[in-house]
Structure formats: C-alpha cells, structure tokens
Design brief:
single chain; 185 residues; alpha+beta; six-stranded antiparallel beta sheet; five-stranded mixed beta sheet; 1 helix; 15 strands; elongated
Length: 185
C-alpha cells in the first residue's frame, strides 16, 4: 500500500459533514413544525362552533335557537310562523366537523380525489353548505322552505341580512311565498 501524508491510503479520512449542525437544524425544524401546526389548530378552533337547537314544539311554531359563545350570541331565536310541526323532531346540532358534508367527486384511479359539498339532514331540513375551516365559519341551511345562513358578522334569511343585535334577540319568519307568479332574485 502506498502511503499518503504519513497514513495508509486505505484509512478513512475524517468526515467533513457537520453532524451537530444537521441534528440541530432537524430539531429546530421539527419544533417549528409542531409549534406551527398546533398554533394554527388553536387559531382554527378558538372561537368554537355554532350550536343550533331545533325545537319543534315551541310556542309560535318550529323554532331554531342559535348559540355562538365567542360572538356573544346566546339564544337568538328564529321562529317559523305558520309552519306545521308535524313530522319535525327536536334536536341540537353542533357544527364543528368540516368533513361532515364532503364526499369525493370521482373514485377512478385517474382522479385527484377532489372534494365537493354534499347536503346532509338536520332537523327541519338540510345543511346545504358549511365552511368550518376557521370556527365558527359559515353554515347555510334550507329549513322549512327558507335559506338560513349563519355567518359571524350577520344572519342571512332568504338573502336578507338580519343583525345579530336585533332587538328581542330573534326574528319571526313568515311562511315561504310559493306560486308561479313569484319571481326569484
């Protein structure tokens, strides 16, 4: 064997890879990932979900009672005047699961498994849309012929905004207008 710099050619030279630096860099990256992930999760869930009570036997007609703790909404009532309570059931729905109304659009191997919205049943009707990425989010329901949309800044009933600060803490909704001479906007 030939010698090089007073050592054998076959001896391994000391590695120039900075292992301490790479280990520290990996540790800091891992720490930042977990802090970022749980920080975003906290921001996403900190205000809490919409909680909606459906009362089929309320005085005045079927009633929804809306609660959202972080927004100071406690017991905002939407009374469906003149609606029949026959066949309706009372229940409480908490809108905190963003996957509840998502379904895959296509299951073929070529698809990218995109998600689309699918309505799901709630008492008095169906939830047709929800965006719960950052709670409380937006929830749109079709209840007893009316479109009800819960948003942090306002309540929308049949495309009309109603402020959450409405006197008396609620609103009465008349029966939906039906017929061939009704023009939708």
């Amino acid at each position: 064997m030939t010698k090089r710099n007073d050592g054998s050619w076959m001896e391994r030279e000391q590695s120039n890879i900075p292992w301490r630096f790479l280990g520290g860099f990996f540790g800091v990256t891992l720490l930042l990932y977990f802090v970022g992930f749980y920080g975003v999760e906290h921001l996403r869930e900190r205000k809490g979900p919409w909680r909606v009570e459906f009362d089929a036997a309320a005085t005045g007609g079927p009633t929804t009672i809306i609660h959202q703790r972080a927004l100071g909404i406690d017991g905002f009532r939407v009374v469906f005047e003149g609606a029949s309570s026959g066949g309706l059931k009372s229940d409480v729905v908490v809108f905190d699961n963003p996957k509840l109304n998502a379904q895959s659009m296509d299951t073929t191997p070529e698809s990218s498994q995109e998600l689309k919205q699918r309505s799901f049943e709630v008492p008095f009707g169906e939830c047709i849309y929800q965006d719960l990425m950052f709670l409380p989010g937006v929830v749109t329901m079709n209840l007893l012929g009316h479109e009800i949309e819960l948003m942090p800044r306002t309540l929308v009933i049949d495309k009309k905004e109603i402020p959450w600060s409405t006197p008396a803490g609620g609103i009465a909704v008349p029966p939906p207008v039906e017929g061939p001479d009704v023009i939708s906007n």
